[in-house]
Amino acid sequence: MAKGFVPNIKQLPKFMKEDPGILQGHRACAGCGCAIILRQIMMARRKPIVIANATGCMEVVTTIFPYTAWRTPWIHVAFENAAAVAAGIDAGRNKLQRAGRFSGDKDISVDYDVVALAGDGGTYDIGLQALSGALERWHNFMYVLYDNEAYMNTGIQRSGGTPFGAWTTTTPVGKKIKGKPLTKKPIVDIVVAHRIPYAATVSPAYWVDALKKFRKGFETEGPAFIHAYGVCPRGWRTDTKDTIKLSKLAVETCFFPLYEVINSEWYLTGPSLTIAKNPDRKKPVEEYLKLQGRFRHMMLPENKWMVEKFQELVDENWEIILKRAKNV
Amino acid sequence: MSKRGWREIPIAGIPFLKSTEYHTGDWKVFRPVIDGEKCIKCGNCWVFCPDSAIEWDGDSVPEPNYDYCKGCGICAEECPVNAIEMVR
Amino acid sequence: MQKVVKQRMMALNGDEAVAWAVKQSDVDVVSAYPITPQTIIVERISDFVHEGEVDLEFIKVESEHSALSACVGAAAAGARAFTATAANGLQLMFEILYITASLRMPVVMAVVNRAPSGPINIHCDHNDSMGARDAGWIQIYCEDAQEAYDSTIQAFKISEDPEVLLPTMVTLDGFLISHTLQNVSLLPEEVVHEFLGTRKVQRIKVPEIFGDKEVPLMLNPKYPLTFGPLDLFDYYFEHKRQQIEAMERAYKVIERVHKEYAEISGRSYGNGFIEPYKTDDADVVVVGLGSTMGTAKAVVDELRGEGKKVGSIRIRVFRPFPRELLRKVLSEFDAVGVLDRGISFGHFGQVYSDLCAALYGAKDAPMMIDFVYGLGGRDMPQKLLKKIFEEVLEAKVKGPEPVFRIRGVR
User: Fold this and answer.
1) Before C320, cis peptide (omega within 30)?
2) A67 → closest Cβ in B17, B68, B70
3) What are the chain C neighbours of A90 within 8 Å (beta carbons)?
């Protein structure tokens, strides 16, 4: 199953029923895209996983004491250190495996994959140092960034992952400054600069693509990084039913291209590869923006330049990726 | 249920109840109803539900679990054959 | 009663003594970041690892914040974890100190006491670890390199005791202990192994999830537990109450471990909590922490030679604070001078305020005077310490005012 992992929609429900990893009854907002990502990580497991979760939405909504939604070993320590905690788990696991510790104890297993899970705040901003350190040290773990593009847990404040123009409570739409005047940090570029063996972007709408990438992340010897796109209806001011629609549009407009970076070589995947080969399929980004209340001000005639600027940023980024991609 | 004292809960802050004991179903305004006749069993509703509230064995018609369904409407939106209707 | 084992003597400084203790203690994961004057600890452990003399995972992290975070991860995974730091490094860990204790992770950390910035300084005072005294860690303050070695080994046993499950800080004075060579007796490695064993994992019951099964308190796919949930006003206090209880239970465990260790090593430090020196017939005593209390013994001898009835008491365990014991012991004296190598700005030194609280309302409570000294590594020569003793003797006659005195500053 290792190399040729093909997610099968007929078999996955049985697998998930037997060992769901995450349960019903968590308190993510209705329509939460990040909660979908959590389930997709679980669907892609090859063996048990242990999760080190940074402070953030997914940490909070799954573990409001005395309840836990996790049926997988899980730890939350703080905001900025998911990668460091995962590093410690990796090191501990390695030593315990090597020493054969607990091997005679049928109640304990030290055979698992390690996952660090953090939002955009915990990755782009406050957790970047710990992430960089863990990548440099080549820990054997998969870091999953669920990117909902702002500090949603504290009530929609801008982060390094917030895109240009977006309204947040700290980038309000004022008379003078309208939304975030700066752009989204190229986090995958930063991660890939560590020359790690595997990095990829996933959108939960393209779940087969996502599951394959999560599985590759698990299988990678050394650090793997997955940038997952997570719609936040509450913070983006979107209709809860539109989460998957937006997860598609982000890819179809090339705002969030899907690709893999294997040993520093870039490969487009799924619909992004199709668009690269058929450029006329690339949708205007306005189609993506207009569904979201956080960009509503940009739809006004006097702010039309913001949509144009947004489109330029998307095009620029897409061109860079096209140049890098080996399979185009 | 009266809240437990410090001697009666596990140490280290370990949660002692499963989230399944907490019903998020009362958050919803609209609930999905699946038309078994139209359903093609593609699994979209199951795979995209953020709340694992669509229960499915992979073969039969999926069933929403209203104890947990928050009524987001993703399943209805993503159903390729419009077999799911959101009703109040 | 076990027999004292034959030991090997090595000339080691305090940092090296700690590194040797780590080497011998079946530590699984070390995660640390270098900072003066702790660096020798991480250098020696690196030597041991790179020479293949010890099998542990040494995570050479990018910050102290990550150092302790990784220790928490490792400990949660079921490993025995150690870190070491000082001053600013400890301060960078501050957030994780509290979390380590609340997650009940038996991490052991050497803190090589150094004055916190600013201005930046590398020499000894106690304001770094004193700033962390409320974080929920056991704190053991050592007098010399030998004690740093002994206490580090004891710390694992104390921390991992199922009655306790709290992290422990073993502190040693920067440069004064960390960089000063001393003849240190090392136990044979197999004796340390036998004393500690490998890391055991506590079992707990979570009946609603696992029924009657007692499940290992670790990250374990067989019985998956959730560590570090969101804990609001309805249960947070109960979890803090459990930590209060664990600290209370630690008294007995610290005492027992100290005694068991004394039986095999032949070394003890008072009763494990406080180490009195020539106090039996003393009228006045000086109380303090760390290496200064070695100097104090010499001063006591000198003053005794002059016919003065003085003694000294070193507090070894600062958390849990041996309050009942000190309340009883100090009530025997007329006047007590408290040596504080730290200061809570706007109040007294930390040892003084804790002692005052412990002695409040005691029937025969002595007068107590706070002497703040030695900040930023300012020397405490024998002469100055003698003068402090004399001030306490004088206070016995003239009264304690002022009770807050700063000595050794221009």
Assistant:
1) yes
2) B17
3) 73
Give the pLDDT confidence of C315-336 residue by residue, as tens digits: 999 999 999 999 999 999 999 9
Q: Is C78 left (phi over 0), alpha (psi -120 to 50) or beta?
A: left
pLDDT tens-place string over residues C272-289: 999 999 999 999 999 999
* Chain A interface test: which of C227, C236, C237 (most A C-beta within 10 Å): C227
Domains of chain C: 8-200+250-265 (3.40.50.970), 274-406 (3.40.50.920)
Rounded Cα distance, C368 and C285, in Å:
10
Q: Are the C-beta atoms of A19 and A46 separated by less than 8 Å?
A: no
Residues of chain C with pLDDT under 50: none
Reduced to 3 states (helix: H, G, I; strand: E, B; else coil), residue B32 is strand
d(CA A5, CA A22): 21
Nearest to C373 by CA among C302, C306, C321, C296: C296
Query: What is the CATH topology of the domain spanning A12-324?
Result: Rossmann fold (3.40.50)
3-state secondary structure of A116: strand
The average confidence (pLDDT) of chain A is 97
Query: Does domain B32-88 correspond to CATH entry 3.30.70.20?
Result: yes
Across the interface, do B11 and C205 touch by the CB < 8 Å criterion? Answer: no
pLDDT, position B40 = 98
Question: Given an 8 Å threshold on Cβ–Cβ distance, is C227 in contact with B16?
Answer: no
The pLDDT value recorded for residue A4 is 80
Out of C208, C231, C234, closest to residue B13 by CB: C231
CB atoms near residue C313 (< 10 Å): 25
Q: Nearest CA to CA, how far is A11 from chain B (Å)?
A: 6
Contact (CB<8Å) C234/A65: yes
H or E stretch including A78?
A: none
Cα C133 versus chain centre, distance: 10
- Which strand ranges, in their side-by-side order, compose the sheet holding C404-406? C274-277, C310-315, C284-288, C335-340, C367-372, C404-406
Q: With an 8 Å Cβ cutoff, are C209 and B18 in contact?
A: yes
Give the pLDDT band (50/70/90) at residue A2.
very low
Distance CA C85, CA C39 (A): 8
Partners of residue A136 in chain C, C-beta under 8 Å: 62
| ipTM for this prediction | 0.97
Radius of gyration (C-alpha) of chain A in whole angstroms: 20
Check CB contact of C204 with chain A, cutoff 8 Å. Answer: no
Q: CA A121 to CA A55: how far, in whole Å? A: 9
The interface residues of chain C toward chain A in range 48-67, judged by CB-CB distance below 8 A, are 55-57, 59-63, 65-67
Amino acid identity for residue A41 in this structure: I
Token digits of residue B78: 């993503």
Instruction: Give the pLDDT confidence score for residue A54 in this predicted structure.
Output: 98
Q: Do C96 and A81 count as a contact with CB atoms less than 8 A apart? A: yes
- In this complex, the residue of C73, C81, C224 whose CB is nearest that of residue A70 is C224
User: What percent of chain A stands above pLDDT 70?
Assistant: 99
- Which amino acid makes up residue C3? K
How far apart CA B82 and CA A143 sit, in angstroms, is 37
Q: What per-residue string of b and e applies to B27-62 under the rule 16 or more CB within 10 Å gives b?
A: ebebbbebeeeebebebbbbbbbbbbbbebebeeeb
- Domain spans of chain B, in order of start: 32-88
- pLDDT reported for residue A1: 35
Based on the number of CB atoms within 10 Å of its own CB, is C127 exposed (0-12), middle (13-18) or buried (19 or more)?
buried
Of A84, A108, A136, the CB nearest to C70: A84
CB < 8 Å from C in window 272-301 of A: none
Half-sphere exposure in the Cβ direction for A282 (13 Å, CA): 19
C62 to chain A: closest CA residue: A133
Of the candidates A13, A36, A243, the beta carbon closest to that of B56 is on: A13
